[in-house]
Amino acid sequence: MEETKTNAHNSFKNFIYLFVILMLIWLALTLSFESQELFTGIVVSLVLSFALVKSFQKIGFPGITPKKIAYLLIYIIVLFKEIIMANLDVAYRVIHPKMPIKPGIVIIKTELKQDLAKMILANSITLTPGTFTLDIQEDKLLIHWINLKTDNEEEATKKIGKRFEKYLSVIFK
Predict the structure, then answer these.
(1) Three-state DSSP state, 144
(2) Residues 43 and 74 placed together within one structural domain of the fold
(3) What domain range includes position 20?
């Protein structure tokens, strides 16, 4: 009985989270606060929330708290900064006369437990030019690195994965 109440409560919370997310996306896309637009956005968000709430729960999205929102915003800023820095690094390697690259494959270890968190980490690594996630196997990610600085798992983890993982671990608690 208690488990049924908890599941219903979690389902309702996820429905609300999903509705709010969809409504924010609607507002961002329409940039309108006219009554007709708002009404349409509410109806569309409600219908999609009803249809997608079970899938939303299966995927394992984390609950939303002010702390997680703050970490998500910081994570987005860090990701953007890392993408810019990696782009500059790769551009330098391309225009340098001797093209200083030392490509290689390295394994990094993650402490993230949720599959969704691991996927976001892998995609974040891939979004930064010069690195590419080849595979995820349990708690290890196989990474192609344009300029292999170390083949030691711990050092590679610090250089590649920890910059993102420290934020993702809080977001996905």
Answers:
(1) strand
(2) no
(3) 2-59
Q: So what's the pLDDT on residue 52?
A: 87
Q: Express each pLDDT in 29-43 by its tens digit.
A: 999 889 999 999 999
Amino acid found at 8:
A
Same domain, 43 and 19: yes
Contact 150, 104 (CB under 8 A): no
Residues 45 and 70 in one domain: no
| Percentage of the chain lying above the pLDDT 70 cut | 92
Q: Which long-range contacts (CB under 8 A, 24 or more apart) does 82-88 make?
A: 82/124, 82/128, 82/163, 82/164, 83/127, 83/128, 83/129, 85/128, 86/128, 86/129, 86/130, 86/131, 87/129
